[in-house]
Amino acid sequence: MSTFQIEGGHKLKGEITPQGAKNEALQILCAVLLTPDKVTISNIPDIRDVNKLIEILGNLGVKIQKLGKGKFSFISDELNLDYLESEQFKKEGSGLRGSIMIVGPLLGRFGKGYIPRPGGDKIGRRRLDTHFEGFIKLGAKFRYNREERFYGVEAPKGLKGSYMLLDEASVTGTANIVMAASLAEGTTTIYNAACEPYLQQLCKMLNAMGAKISGIGSNMLTIEGVTTLNGCEHRVLPDMIEIGSWIGLAAMTRSEITIKNVSWENLGQIPDTFRKLGITLNKVNDDIHIPAHTEGYQIESFIDGSFMTISDAPWPGFTPDLLSIVLVVATQAKGEVMVHQKMFESRLFFVDKLIDMGAKIILCDPHRATIIGHNFESILKATTMVSPDIRAGISLLIAALGAKGTSVIHNIEQIDRGYENIDERLRAIGAKIIRTE
Ligand SMILES: CC(=O)N[C@H]1[C@@H](OP(=O)(O)OP(=O)(O)OC[C@H]2O[C@@H](n3ccc(=O)[nH]c3=O)[C@H](O)[C@@H]2O)O[C@H](CO)[C@@H](O)[C@@H]1O
Ligand SMILES: C=C(OP(=O)(O)O)C(=O)O
Protein backbone atom coordinates (compact mmCIF):
# COMPACT_ATOMS: atom_id res chain seq x y z
CA MET A 1 0.00 0.00 0.00
CA SER A 2 1.69 3.27 -1.08
CA THR A 3 1.28 6.58 0.68
CA PHE A 4 1.22 10.31 -0.04
CA GLN A 5 2.60 12.80 2.41
CA ILE A 6 1.11 16.21 1.75
CA GLU A 7 2.16 19.48 3.28
CA GLY A 8 -0.89 21.70 3.02
CA GLY A 9 -1.38 25.44 2.99
CA HIS A 10 0.75 26.31 -0.06
CA LYS A 11 -0.61 28.35 -2.95
CA LEU A 12 -0.27 26.64 -6.31
CA LYS A 13 0.25 28.39 -9.62
CA GLY A 14 0.55 27.47 -13.24
CA GLU A 15 -0.91 25.34 -15.99
CA ILE A 16 -2.13 21.79 -15.87
CA THR A 17 -3.12 19.68 -18.86
CA PRO A 18 -5.82 17.07 -18.33
CA GLN A 19 -5.07 13.45 -19.20
CA GLY A 20 -7.23 11.49 -21.63
CA ALA A 21 -10.57 10.38 -20.16
CA LYS A 22 -10.42 7.13 -18.17
CA ASN A 23 -14.02 6.11 -18.78
CA GLU A 24 -13.85 6.83 -22.50
CA ALA A 25 -10.54 5.01 -22.89
CA LEU A 26 -11.99 1.88 -21.26
CA GLN A 27 -14.82 1.77 -23.83
CA ILE A 28 -12.61 2.58 -26.80
CA LEU A 29 -10.05 -0.08 -25.84
CA CYS A 30 -12.76 -2.74 -25.71
CA ALA A 31 -13.97 -1.67 -29.18
CA VAL A 32 -10.64 -2.76 -30.74
CA LEU A 33 -11.95 -6.33 -30.33
CA LEU A 34 -14.63 -5.67 -32.96
CA THR A 35 -12.30 -5.77 -35.96
CA PRO A 36 -9.33 -7.79 -37.24
CA ASP A 37 -7.90 -4.53 -38.64
CA LYS A 38 -5.52 -2.09 -37.02
CA VAL A 39 -7.00 0.48 -34.64
CA THR A 40 -4.79 3.36 -33.53
CA ILE A 41 -5.74 5.28 -30.40
CA SER A 42 -4.10 8.38 -29.00
CA ASN A 43 -4.38 10.29 -25.72
CA ILE A 44 -4.75 7.08 -23.71
CA PRO A 45 -4.11 7.90 -20.05
CA ASP A 46 -1.29 6.03 -18.31
CA ILE A 47 -3.32 4.94 -15.27
CA ARG A 48 -3.79 1.67 -13.42
CA ASP A 49 -7.27 0.74 -14.70
CA VAL A 50 -6.42 1.43 -18.32
CA ASN A 51 -3.10 -0.43 -18.10
CA LYS A 52 -4.86 -3.44 -16.57
CA LEU A 53 -7.32 -3.48 -19.47
CA ILE A 54 -4.51 -3.24 -22.02
CA GLU A 55 -2.91 -6.23 -20.27
CA ILE A 56 -6.15 -8.21 -20.56
CA LEU A 57 -6.31 -7.37 -24.29
CA GLY A 58 -2.72 -8.58 -24.66
CA ASN A 59 -3.58 -11.86 -22.91
CA LEU A 60 -6.53 -12.25 -25.26
CA GLY A 61 -4.04 -12.21 -28.12
CA VAL A 62 -4.44 -8.61 -29.31
CA LYS A 63 -1.20 -7.40 -30.93
CA ILE A 64 -0.35 -4.17 -29.20
CA GLN A 65 2.27 -1.66 -30.20
CA LYS A 66 3.19 1.47 -28.29
CA LEU A 67 3.72 4.27 -30.81
CA GLY A 68 4.47 7.12 -28.42
CA LYS A 69 3.20 8.65 -25.19
CA GLY A 70 -0.47 7.65 -24.89
CA LYS A 71 -0.54 6.33 -28.47
CA PHE A 72 -1.01 2.64 -29.23
CA SER A 73 -2.07 0.46 -32.15
CA PHE A 74 -4.10 -2.71 -31.66
CA ILE A 75 -4.70 -5.62 -34.05
CA SER A 76 -7.24 -8.24 -32.98
CA ASP A 77 -6.81 -10.66 -35.89
CA GLU A 78 -5.87 -13.81 -33.96
CA LEU A 79 -7.52 -13.94 -30.57
CA ASN A 80 -7.04 -16.58 -27.92
CA LEU A 81 -10.61 -16.98 -26.66
CA ASP A 82 -9.56 -19.86 -24.36
CA TYR A 83 -8.06 -17.19 -22.09
CA LEU A 84 -11.65 -16.19 -21.23
CA GLU A 85 -12.17 -19.50 -19.46
CA SER A 86 -8.83 -19.48 -17.61
CA GLU A 87 -8.20 -18.90 -13.89
CA GLN A 88 -5.86 -16.06 -14.90
CA PHE A 89 -8.76 -14.21 -16.58
CA LYS A 90 -11.00 -14.75 -13.54
CA LYS A 91 -8.41 -12.88 -11.51
CA GLU A 92 -7.49 -10.19 -14.03
CA GLY A 93 -11.00 -9.52 -15.32
CA SER A 94 -12.31 -8.82 -11.83
CA GLY A 95 -9.67 -6.15 -11.20
CA LEU A 96 -11.56 -3.25 -12.72
CA ARG A 97 -15.04 -2.13 -13.79
CA GLY A 98 -14.18 -1.40 -17.41
CA SER A 99 -13.37 -5.04 -18.25
CA ILE A 100 -17.11 -5.76 -18.43
CA MET A 101 -17.12 -4.01 -21.81
CA ILE A 102 -15.12 -6.76 -23.54
CA VAL A 103 -18.29 -8.91 -23.42
CA GLY A 104 -20.31 -6.93 -26.02
CA PRO A 105 -17.64 -6.88 -28.74
CA LEU A 106 -16.75 -10.57 -28.24
CA LEU A 107 -20.41 -11.59 -28.30
CA GLY A 108 -21.03 -9.53 -31.46
CA ARG A 109 -17.98 -10.82 -33.32
CA PHE A 110 -17.50 -14.39 -32.02
CA GLY A 111 -20.91 -15.29 -30.57
CA LYS A 112 -19.66 -15.65 -26.99
CA GLY A 113 -18.46 -13.51 -24.15
CA TYR A 114 -17.57 -14.26 -20.51
CA ILE A 115 -16.62 -12.11 -17.57
CA PRO A 116 -16.01 -12.52 -13.85
CA ARG A 117 -17.86 -10.06 -11.65
CA PRO A 118 -15.92 -6.87 -12.41
CA GLY A 119 -14.22 -4.72 -9.79
CA GLY A 120 -14.06 -0.93 -9.65
CA ASP A 121 -14.98 1.39 -6.84
CA LYS A 122 -16.76 -0.03 -3.81
CA ILE A 123 -19.32 2.73 -3.76
CA GLY A 124 -22.53 0.74 -3.39
CA ARG A 125 -24.30 -1.97 -5.34
CA ARG A 126 -23.20 -2.03 -8.94
CA ARG A 127 -25.45 -4.42 -10.76
CA LEU A 128 -25.04 -5.59 -14.33
CA ASP A 129 -28.65 -6.44 -15.19
CA THR A 130 -28.92 -3.75 -17.87
CA HIS A 131 -25.95 -5.22 -19.77
CA PHE A 132 -27.26 -8.78 -19.80
CA GLU A 133 -30.92 -7.89 -20.37
CA GLY A 134 -29.72 -6.03 -23.46
CA PHE A 135 -27.72 -9.01 -24.74
CA ILE A 136 -30.71 -11.30 -24.12
CA LYS A 137 -32.90 -8.92 -26.18
CA LEU A 138 -30.37 -9.35 -28.99
CA GLY A 139 -30.93 -13.11 -28.81
CA ALA A 140 -28.05 -14.25 -26.57
CA LYS A 141 -28.40 -17.05 -24.02
CA PHE A 142 -27.30 -15.96 -20.57
CA ARG A 143 -25.87 -17.95 -17.68
CA TYR A 144 -24.52 -16.94 -14.31
CA ASN A 145 -22.41 -19.10 -12.02
CA ARG A 146 -23.34 -17.76 -8.59
CA GLU A 147 -20.52 -19.54 -6.75
CA GLU A 148 -17.78 -18.31 -9.03
CA ARG A 149 -19.62 -15.05 -9.80
CA PHE A 150 -18.96 -15.68 -13.47
CA TYR A 151 -21.23 -14.33 -16.21
CA GLY A 152 -21.53 -15.80 -19.71
CA VAL A 153 -23.49 -15.01 -22.88
CA GLU A 154 -23.59 -17.06 -26.06
CA ALA A 155 -25.21 -16.64 -29.46
CA PRO A 156 -23.65 -19.26 -31.78
CA LYS A 157 -25.96 -18.27 -34.63
CA GLY A 158 -25.30 -14.56 -34.23
CA LEU A 159 -27.29 -11.70 -32.75
CA LYS A 160 -30.55 -10.18 -34.08
CA GLY A 161 -31.34 -6.49 -33.83
CA SER A 162 -34.22 -5.55 -31.54
CA TYR A 163 -35.99 -2.68 -29.76
CA MET A 164 -35.11 -2.24 -26.11
CA LEU A 165 -35.97 0.19 -23.35
CA LEU A 166 -33.15 0.04 -20.81
CA ASP A 167 -34.21 -0.17 -17.16
CA GLU A 168 -31.59 2.48 -16.43
CA ALA A 169 -29.27 4.65 -18.49
CA SER A 170 -26.19 2.60 -17.59
CA VAL A 171 -22.96 4.01 -19.04
CA THR A 172 -20.98 0.79 -19.44
CA GLY A 173 -24.23 -1.12 -20.16
CA THR A 174 -25.09 1.12 -23.12
CA ALA A 175 -21.53 0.88 -24.46
CA ASN A 176 -21.61 -2.91 -24.23
CA ILE A 177 -24.96 -3.24 -26.02
CA VAL A 178 -24.02 -0.72 -28.74
CA MET A 179 -20.85 -2.68 -29.53
CA ALA A 180 -22.70 -6.00 -29.70
CA ALA A 181 -25.55 -4.53 -31.78
CA SER A 182 -23.13 -3.05 -34.31
CA LEU A 183 -22.44 -6.57 -35.57
CA ALA A 184 -26.03 -7.92 -35.16
CA GLU A 185 -28.30 -8.72 -38.06
CA GLY A 186 -30.89 -5.97 -38.55
CA THR A 187 -31.69 -2.82 -36.62
CA THR A 188 -31.43 -2.24 -32.87
CA THR A 189 -33.05 0.68 -31.10
CA ILE A 190 -31.87 1.50 -27.59
CA TYR A 191 -34.15 3.87 -25.69
CA ASN A 192 -33.05 5.31 -22.32
CA ALA A 193 -29.49 4.95 -23.59
CA ALA A 194 -26.74 6.71 -21.64
CA CYS A 195 -25.27 9.58 -23.68
CA GLU A 196 -22.15 10.81 -21.83
CA PRO A 197 -19.38 12.20 -24.06
CA TYR A 198 -17.70 8.80 -23.44
CA LEU A 199 -20.53 7.14 -25.36
CA GLN A 200 -20.70 9.81 -28.03
CA GLN A 201 -17.02 9.22 -28.66
CA LEU A 202 -17.48 5.46 -28.79
CA CYS A 203 -20.34 5.78 -31.32
CA LYS A 204 -18.31 8.17 -33.49
CA MET A 205 -15.41 5.74 -33.41
CA LEU A 206 -17.68 2.82 -34.37
CA ASN A 207 -19.12 4.85 -37.26
CA ALA A 208 -15.55 5.54 -38.41
CA MET A 209 -15.08 1.75 -38.37
CA GLY A 210 -18.11 1.32 -40.65
CA ALA A 211 -20.95 0.99 -38.11
CA LYS A 212 -24.27 2.73 -38.76
CA ILE A 213 -25.30 4.43 -35.55
CA SER A 214 -27.63 7.42 -35.40
CA GLY A 215 -29.03 9.44 -32.51
CA ILE A 216 -25.55 10.04 -31.06
CA GLY A 217 -25.76 12.33 -28.02
CA SER A 218 -29.44 11.52 -27.39
CA ASN A 219 -31.07 8.82 -25.26
CA MET A 220 -32.36 6.98 -28.34
CA LEU A 221 -29.71 5.22 -30.39
CA THR A 222 -30.46 3.37 -33.62
CA ILE A 223 -27.91 0.86 -34.80
CA GLU A 224 -28.18 -0.78 -38.21
CA GLY A 225 -26.08 -3.91 -37.91
CA VAL A 226 -23.23 -4.54 -40.36
CA THR A 227 -21.33 -7.77 -41.04
CA THR A 228 -17.80 -6.50 -40.46
CA LEU A 229 -16.07 -3.46 -39.06
CA ASN A 230 -12.72 -2.07 -40.13
CA GLY A 231 -9.83 -0.24 -38.51
CA CYS A 232 -9.73 3.44 -37.62
CA GLU A 233 -7.84 6.13 -35.76
CA HIS A 234 -9.32 7.67 -32.64
CA ARG A 235 -8.30 10.32 -30.12
CA VAL A 236 -9.64 10.19 -26.54
CA LEU A 237 -11.14 13.43 -25.15
CA PRO A 238 -9.65 15.17 -22.09
CA ASP A 239 -10.91 13.69 -18.82
CA MET A 240 -13.82 15.85 -17.62
CA ILE A 241 -13.61 14.35 -14.15
CA GLU A 242 -9.96 15.33 -13.90
CA ILE A 243 -10.88 18.82 -15.13
CA GLY A 244 -13.52 19.11 -12.40
CA SER A 245 -10.98 17.89 -9.86
CA TRP A 246 -8.52 20.64 -10.84
CA ILE A 247 -11.28 23.28 -10.60
CA GLY A 248 -11.92 22.10 -7.04
CA LEU A 249 -8.21 22.07 -6.27
CA ALA A 250 -7.76 25.67 -7.48
CA ALA A 251 -10.69 26.95 -5.40
CA MET A 252 -9.80 25.10 -2.23
CA THR A 253 -6.16 26.26 -2.29
CA ARG A 254 -7.14 29.75 -3.53
CA SER A 255 -4.68 29.34 -6.38
CA GLU A 256 -4.60 30.75 -9.88
CA ILE A 257 -4.60 27.80 -12.24
CA THR A 258 -5.14 27.39 -15.96
CA ILE A 259 -6.47 24.03 -17.13
CA LYS A 260 -5.37 23.60 -20.74
CA ASN A 261 -7.37 22.28 -23.70
CA VAL A 262 -10.43 21.14 -21.83
CA SER A 263 -12.83 20.66 -24.78
CA TRP A 264 -15.40 23.10 -23.37
CA GLU A 265 -18.19 21.81 -25.59
CA ASN A 266 -18.00 18.42 -23.86
CA LEU A 267 -18.12 19.62 -20.25
CA GLY A 268 -21.92 19.79 -19.95
CA GLN A 269 -23.04 21.05 -16.51
CA ILE A 270 -19.59 20.91 -14.95
CA PRO A 271 -18.54 24.60 -15.25
CA ASP A 272 -21.95 25.94 -14.15
CA THR A 273 -22.13 23.58 -11.19
CA PHE A 274 -18.83 24.90 -9.83
CA ARG A 275 -20.07 28.44 -10.54
CA LYS A 276 -23.05 27.72 -8.25
CA LEU A 277 -20.50 27.27 -5.48
CA GLY A 278 -19.28 30.79 -6.25
CA ILE A 279 -16.16 29.77 -8.15
CA THR A 280 -15.10 32.01 -11.03
CA LEU A 281 -14.14 30.14 -14.20
CA ASN A 282 -13.07 32.00 -17.31
CA LYS A 283 -13.17 30.53 -20.77
CA VAL A 284 -9.95 31.47 -22.55
CA ASN A 285 -9.99 29.81 -25.97
CA ASP A 286 -10.28 26.12 -25.03
CA ASP A 287 -8.70 26.60 -21.57
CA ILE A 288 -10.30 27.23 -18.18
CA HIS A 289 -8.66 30.02 -16.24
CA ILE A 290 -9.42 30.07 -12.50
CA PRO A 291 -8.25 33.23 -10.73
CA ALA A 292 -6.99 33.05 -7.15
CA HIS A 293 -10.08 33.26 -4.90
CA THR A 294 -8.33 35.45 -2.34
CA GLU A 295 -11.69 36.64 -0.95
CA GLY A 296 -13.16 33.13 -0.92
CA TYR A 297 -16.28 32.00 -2.81
CA GLN A 298 -19.95 32.21 -1.92
CA ILE A 299 -22.48 29.47 -2.62
CA GLU A 300 -25.53 30.74 -4.52
CA SER A 301 -29.12 30.12 -3.44
CA PHE A 302 -31.93 29.18 -5.80
CA ILE A 303 -33.98 32.06 -7.32
CA ASP A 304 -36.62 31.78 -4.59
CA GLY A 305 -33.94 32.09 -1.92
CA SER A 306 -34.03 28.42 -0.97
CA PHE A 307 -31.02 26.37 -0.02
CA MET A 308 -28.69 25.15 -2.83
CA THR A 309 -28.74 21.42 -3.60
CA ILE A 310 -26.30 19.77 -5.99
CA SER A 311 -27.22 16.29 -7.14
CA ASP A 312 -26.19 13.82 -9.82
CA ALA A 313 -28.20 12.59 -12.78
CA PRO A 314 -27.50 10.61 -15.95
CA TRP A 315 -25.96 12.82 -18.65
CA PRO A 316 -26.69 15.61 -19.54
CA GLY A 317 -27.16 15.88 -15.78
CA PHE A 318 -24.24 16.43 -13.42
CA THR A 319 -21.91 13.44 -13.20
CA PRO A 320 -21.87 11.53 -9.88
CA ASP A 321 -18.10 11.23 -10.19
CA LEU A 322 -17.64 14.90 -9.27
CA LEU A 323 -19.93 15.12 -6.25
CA SER A 324 -17.14 14.19 -3.81
CA ILE A 325 -15.11 17.12 -5.20
CA VAL A 326 -18.08 19.48 -4.90
CA LEU A 327 -18.48 18.37 -1.31
CA VAL A 328 -14.89 19.02 -0.34
CA VAL A 329 -14.82 22.43 -2.06
CA ALA A 330 -18.00 23.42 -0.20
CA THR A 331 -16.29 22.93 3.17
CA GLN A 332 -14.42 26.23 2.63
CA ALA A 333 -17.17 28.14 0.79
CA LYS A 334 -19.31 30.87 2.31
CA GLY A 335 -22.80 29.45 2.79
CA GLU A 336 -24.43 26.04 2.84
CA VAL A 337 -25.19 23.36 0.29
CA MET A 338 -26.74 19.93 0.27
CA VAL A 339 -24.96 17.30 -1.81
CA HIS A 340 -27.38 14.60 -2.92
CA GLN A 341 -25.63 11.52 -4.35
CA LYS A 342 -28.61 9.73 -5.90
CA MET A 343 -26.85 6.94 -7.78
CA PHE A 344 -24.47 5.33 -5.32
CA GLU A 345 -25.18 4.18 -1.78
CA SER A 346 -21.76 4.26 -0.19
CA ARG A 347 -19.96 7.13 -1.77
CA LEU A 348 -20.43 9.75 0.92
CA PHE A 349 -19.06 7.87 3.92
CA PHE A 350 -15.64 9.45 3.42
CA VAL A 351 -17.05 12.66 4.95
CA ASP A 352 -16.03 11.18 8.32
CA LYS A 353 -12.43 11.99 7.41
CA LEU A 354 -13.33 15.57 6.49
CA ILE A 355 -15.22 15.94 9.77
CA ASP A 356 -12.07 14.71 11.55
CA MET A 357 -10.20 17.50 9.79
CA GLY A 358 -12.68 20.03 11.18
CA ALA A 359 -15.18 20.36 8.34
CA LYS A 360 -18.81 21.13 9.25
CA ILE A 361 -20.79 18.38 7.56
CA ILE A 362 -23.96 16.58 8.56
CA LEU A 363 -24.35 13.21 6.88
CA CYS A 364 -28.15 13.14 6.69
CA ASP A 365 -28.32 9.59 5.30
CA PRO A 366 -26.11 7.52 2.94
CA HIS A 367 -27.16 9.67 -0.01
CA ARG A 368 -27.25 13.22 1.37
CA ALA A 369 -24.80 15.46 3.18
CA THR A 370 -25.22 19.08 4.24
CA ILE A 371 -22.09 21.17 4.27
CA ILE A 372 -21.73 24.44 6.16
CA GLY A 373 -18.75 26.27 4.69
CA HIS A 374 -16.03 27.85 6.83
CA ASN A 375 -15.31 30.71 4.42
CA PHE A 376 -11.62 30.11 5.24
CA GLU A 377 -12.19 31.50 8.76
CA SER A 378 -11.11 28.14 10.10
CA ILE A 379 -8.64 26.03 8.14
CA LEU A 380 -8.91 22.21 8.03
CA LYS A 381 -6.40 20.32 10.18
CA ALA A 382 -3.98 17.82 8.68
CA THR A 383 -4.72 14.16 9.38
CA THR A 384 -3.87 10.57 8.44
CA MET A 385 -6.41 8.74 6.32
CA VAL A 386 -6.97 5.84 3.93
CA SER A 387 -8.34 6.51 0.47
CA PRO A 388 -11.57 4.47 0.14
CA ASP A 389 -12.32 5.06 -3.56
CA ILE A 390 -10.92 6.99 -6.48
CA ARG A 391 -12.99 10.18 -6.15
CA ALA A 392 -13.02 10.24 -2.33
CA GLY A 393 -9.25 9.77 -2.62
CA ILE A 394 -8.72 12.81 -4.81
CA SER A 395 -11.13 14.83 -2.65
CA LEU A 396 -9.12 13.97 0.46
CA LEU A 397 -5.95 14.91 -1.39
CA ILE A 398 -7.46 18.30 -2.25
CA ALA A 399 -8.56 18.74 1.37
CA ALA A 400 -5.01 17.92 2.52
CA LEU A 401 -3.51 20.48 0.11
CA GLY A 402 -5.81 23.11 1.61
CA ALA A 403 -5.21 22.02 5.23
CA LYS A 404 -2.75 23.23 7.84
CA GLY A 405 0.15 20.82 8.46
CA THR A 406 1.20 17.52 6.94
CA SER A 407 -1.42 14.90 6.07
CA VAL A 408 -0.82 11.28 5.14
CA ILE A 409 -3.04 9.38 2.68
CA HIS A 410 -2.66 5.60 2.53
CA ASN A 411 -3.94 3.29 -0.22
CA ILE A 412 -3.19 5.81 -2.95
CA GLU A 413 -3.45 2.96 -5.50
CA GLN A 414 -7.10 4.03 -5.52
CA ILE A 415 -6.09 7.48 -6.77
CA ASP A 416 -3.61 5.98 -9.28
CA ARG A 417 -6.53 4.03 -10.82
CA GLY A 418 -7.70 7.25 -12.43
CA TYR A 419 -5.10 10.03 -12.18
CA GLU A 420 -1.92 9.87 -14.25
CA ASN A 421 1.31 10.66 -12.46
CA ILE A 422 -0.61 12.88 -10.11
CA ASP A 423 2.15 13.68 -7.61
CA GLU A 424 4.57 14.82 -10.30
CA ARG A 425 1.95 16.94 -12.05
CA LEU A 426 0.90 18.59 -8.79
CA ARG A 427 4.51 19.23 -7.80
CA ALA A 428 4.94 21.05 -11.14
CA ILE A 429 2.39 23.65 -10.00
CA GLY A 430 3.90 24.01 -6.54
CA ALA A 431 2.27 21.29 -4.40
CA LYS A 432 4.35 19.74 -1.63
CA ILE A 433 3.57 16.08 -2.06
CA ILE A 434 5.80 13.03 -1.60
CA ARG A 435 5.02 9.44 -2.58
CA THR A 436 6.40 6.57 -0.52
CA GLU A 437 6.03 2.98 -1.69
C1 LIG B 1 -15.93 2.65 -16.08
C2 LIG B 1 -17.03 3.66 -16.08
O1 LIG B 1 -17.41 4.19 -17.12
N1 LIG B 1 -17.53 3.98 -14.88
C3 LIG B 1 -18.57 4.99 -14.78
C4 LIG B 1 -19.90 4.36 -15.12
O2 LIG B 1 -20.06 3.22 -14.29
P1 LIG B 1 -21.20 2.15 -14.58
O3 LIG B 1 -21.45 2.04 -16.05
O4 LIG B 1 -20.80 0.95 -13.84
O5 LIG B 1 -22.44 2.82 -13.91
P2 LIG B 1 -23.97 2.74 -14.36
O6 LIG B 1 -24.23 3.87 -15.32
O7 LIG B 1 -24.30 1.38 -14.77
O8 LIG B 1 -24.72 3.06 -13.00
C5 LIG B 1 -24.12 3.52 -11.86
C6 LIG B 1 -25.08 3.48 -10.69
O9 LIG B 1 -26.06 4.43 -10.85
C7 LIG B 1 -27.33 3.87 -10.81
N2 LIG B 1 -28.12 4.53 -11.87
C8 LIG B 1 -27.66 4.53 -13.14
C9 LIG B 1 -28.41 5.11 -14.14
C10 LIG B 1 -29.62 5.70 -13.78
O10 LIG B 1 -30.34 6.21 -14.65
N3 LIG B 1 -30.01 5.73 -12.49
C11 LIG B 1 -29.26 5.14 -11.52
O11 LIG B 1 -29.64 5.15 -10.36
C12 LIG B 1 -27.12 2.39 -11.09
O12 LIG B 1 -28.12 1.61 -10.46
C13 LIG B 1 -25.75 2.14 -10.51
O13 LIG B 1 -25.80 1.86 -9.15
O14 LIG B 1 -20.94 5.30 -14.91
C14 LIG B 1 -21.07 5.75 -13.55
C15 LIG B 1 -22.29 6.67 -13.50
O15 LIG B 1 -22.09 7.82 -14.24
C16 LIG B 1 -19.78 6.43 -13.12
O16 LIG B 1 -19.87 6.73 -11.74
C17 LIG B 1 -18.57 5.53 -13.35
O17 LIG B 1 -17.39 6.30 -13.20
C1 LIG C 1 -16.64 5.09 -10.15
C2 LIG C 1 -15.61 5.30 -10.95
O1 LIG C 1 -14.92 4.36 -11.63
P1 LIG C 1 -15.25 2.80 -11.88
O2 LIG C 1 -16.60 2.76 -12.54
O3 LIG C 1 -14.16 2.38 -12.80
O4 LIG C 1 -15.21 2.15 -10.54
C3 LIG C 1 -15.08 6.67 -11.20
O5 LIG C 1 -14.34 6.82 -12.17
O6 LIG C 1 -15.39 7.60 -10.42
Automatic annotation (TrEMBL):
Its EC number is 2.5.1.7. GO terms for cellular component: cytoplasm. UDP-N-acetyl-alpha-D-glucosamine binds at R97, D321, M343. The keyword Cytoplasm applies. It comes from the Bacteria. InterPro entries: Enolpyruvate_Tfrase_dom, Enolpyruvate_Tfrase_sf, MurA_subfamily, RNA3'P_cycl/enolpyr_Trfase_a/b, UDP_GlcNAc_COvinyl_MurA. GO terms for biological process: cell division; cell wall organization; peptidoglycan biosynthetic process; regulation of cell shape; UDP-N-acetylgalactosamine biosynthetic process. Pathway: Cell wall biogenesis; peptidoglycan biosynthesis. The active site is at D121 (proton donor). It catalyses: phosphoenolpyruvate + UDP-N-acetyl-alpha-D-glucosamine = UDP-N-acetyl-3-O-(1-carboxyvinyl)-alpha-D-glucosamine + phosphate. It is found in: Cytoplasm. It holds the Pfam family EPSP_synthase. Residues 7-426 form the Enolpyruvate transferase domain. Keywords: Cell cycle, Cell division, Cell shape, Cell wall biogenesis/degradation, Cytoplasm, Peptidoglycan synthesis, Transferase. The keyword Cell wall biogenesis/degradation applies. One of its GO terms (molecular function) is UDP-N-acetylglucosamine 1-carboxyvinyltransferase activity. Phosphoenolpyruvate binds at K22, N23. Cell wall formation. Adds enolpyruvyl to UDP-N-acetylglucosamine. Belongs to the EPSP synthase family. MurA subfamily. This is UDP-N-acetylglucosamine 1-carboxyvinyltransferase. It comes from Aquimarina intermedia. The gene is murA.
